[in-house]
Amino acid sequence: MDKYWLERTELLIKEEGLKKLNKANILVVGLGGVGSFAAEFLARAGVGNMTIVDGDTVDITNINRQLPALHSTVGKHKVEVVAERLLDINPNLNLIKINEFLNPERMDQVLDEGHFNYVLDCIDSVTPKLCLIKAAKKRKIKIVSSMGAGGKTDPSKVMVKDISKTQNCYLAKQVRKRLRKDKINKGFKCVFSDELQKDDSLKMTDGTNFKRSFYGTISFIPAIFGLYAAAEVINYLVKKD
Fold first, then answer.
1. pTM for the whole thing?
2. Which is it for strands 189-193 and 158-162: parallel, antiparallel or unpaired?
3. pLDDT tens digits, 173-224
4. Is the dihedral of CA 104, 105, 106, 107 positive or negative?
5. What angle do CA 72, 81, 136 make, to 5 degrees?
6. Where exactly are the structural domains of the chain?
7. Which of 224, 218, 215, 219 is nearest to 192 (CA)?
8. CA 116 → CA 25, 30, 38, 41, 140, distances in Å?
9. pLDDT tens digits, residue range 13-48?
């Protein structure tokens, strides 16, 4: 690997840290406001192997918060836009693109074939999010899950804690409630904000792609969720024996 572009990173985490990141294999599911930034931070840190998953195309309403969303990319597949960017950051990145919304069977298949060190759940719909969490837990694969970034404006309220310690987040509440049916009460990290959601920013939808509603969003909150998720993974990998 040409390490020159990682010179500043090596000063911080040393050659051993770079080697750990280069050997790591990471799965990022969801390339919206959270996942697109998380994937970029992983690539810029020197993660050597990554699989990115999203079946969506860029919509003009994504421009306010999503890294791949530009007027020039509207209508393009997010996986393709993000992949081009990641490979421009690190041409040596071993990158696998999956341009689909994963159903439960495909989640099982992807996890079984991937041999991942860590999974980043950046899905914003409850049902597929639960499927991914349960599939990762079943296989004892480490996972960090992003909770609700909508309806929030205070970056200082964002943190990473076990799912059992989340609060003031409607998405996390739904996830906790439904996981209890599977006897999962704790045991994986979540990125969440304990800022009270601004309820007057809620909009109902037609239920497409498992989403019945969504909250208003500002440019920087989903990005900081992605930053925290990536940081959790990178720091774990660097410290791992």
1. 0.94
2. antiparallel
3. 999 999 999 999 999 999 999 999 888 888 887 656 556 678 899 999 999 9
4. positive
5. 145
6. 6-238
7. 224
8. 5, 16, 16, 17, 10
9. 999 999 999 999 999 999 999 999 999 999 999 999
CATH architecture of residue range(s) 6-238: 3-Layer(aba) Sandwich (3.40)
Residue appearing with tokens 């969490």: 133
**What is the amino acid identity at position 45?**
A
CB 121 within 8 A of CB 133: yes
Whole-angstrom CA distances from 143 to 26, 154, 208, 236 are: 10, 25, 26, 11
Cα torsion through 134, 212, 33, 75, rounded to 10 = 110
Residue pLDDT, tens place only, 127-169: 999 999 999 999 999 999 999 999 999 999 999 999 999 999 9
How many CA atoms does the CB half-sphere of 143 hold within 13 Å?
Answer: 27
